[in-house]
Each structure stands twice: as C-alpha cells, then as structure tokens.
Amino acid sequence: MMLVNVFELVGQRALVSRGVARRIGSALRERVEKVRGVVPPALALDFSGVQAASPSFFDELVATLGELKEELGDTVTFLYPPPSVRGTFQAIGRGRGISFVETAPENWEVELTTTVGKAR
C-alpha cells in the first residue's frame, strides 16, 4: 500500500483550492509510476496535520483520484480526515457517485465508481 501524508506533501493545514488538489494528484502520479509492479495498487491518504479542507479542494481531489482509478483500484483509504468537513465531503461524494464507509472512528474507505474523474 502506498501511504501519502497530505500535510507533509503540501505543507498546508488548510486545503482550500483546486490547485492544491492538482499538486497532490501530480505527486500521486509520480509515485504510482515509481512503484508500478512493486507495490500493490492501493492508496492511503493520511490527513494528519490538516485542519480544514474546502469543497472545491475535495471535488478536485476526487476527480484526480478517479483519473488514477485504473492504477489505484476502486478504494482509497482516508486516514484522519478533518472532522469538520465530513458532511461536505459526503455531499460532494454523492454528487460524484462515490461512497464513504467509516471503517474506524477516524478512517474512511472511499469507493470510487466509473463516473468519478469524468469531466464536470
């Protein structure tokens, strides 16, 4: 499994723009290429240190994950997502055709579908 700490990657406690999500997507693409065939295609995004995230950030992140679905598989794990954004993330997820399953008090399994990542 590929574990990525979002705060360490972008150095921001508040994730508020689509640009930040695209930076994460670029970093993920690079990491996927490096581990292709070596590490099983699974991803965990660790949000430790992140205190807030905007709807536009999350919408773009979901689209980016959808573009990487073939390489990463159908499920991405979110570790320690900011509690204050849970409802917003779930609403955007429903609009994008994804579901969240809380597997532990601070962990979500995000199920990607075929509609995720398609043009808005």
**Strand runs, count:** 7
Under CATH, the topology can be stated as: Ribosomal Protein S8, Chain: A, domain 1
| Rg calculated over all Cα atoms | 13 Å
Question: Can you tell me the residue ranges where pLDDT is under 50 for at least 5 consecutive residues?
Answer: none
Shape: globular
Number of helices: 5
Characterization of the model:
By secondary structure, the protein is an alpha/beta fold. The protein has one domain: Ribosomal Protein S8, Chain: A, domain 1 (2-Layer Sandwich). Helix content is 42%, strand content 23%. It is built from 5 helices and 7 strands; from the N terminus they run E-H-E-H-E-E-H-H-E-H-E-E. The chain has helices at 6-10, 18-35, 55-67, 69-72, 86-96; strands spanning 2-5, 14-15, 43-46, 52-53, 75-79, 99-104, 107-111. A 5-stranded mixed β-sheet has the order 1-3-5-7-6. A hairpin with a 2-residue loop joins strand 6 and strand 7. Helix 2 (18-35) runs parallel beside helix 3. The longest helix has 18 residues, at 18-35. The radius of gyration is 13 Å and the shape is globular. The N and C termini lie far apart (29 Å). The mean pLDDT is 86.
Task: Offer a few descriptive terms.
single chain, 5-stranded mixed beta sheet, 7 strands, globular, Ribosomal Protein S8, Chain: A, domain 1, two-stranded parallel ribbon, alpha/beta, 120 residues, 42% helix, 5 helices
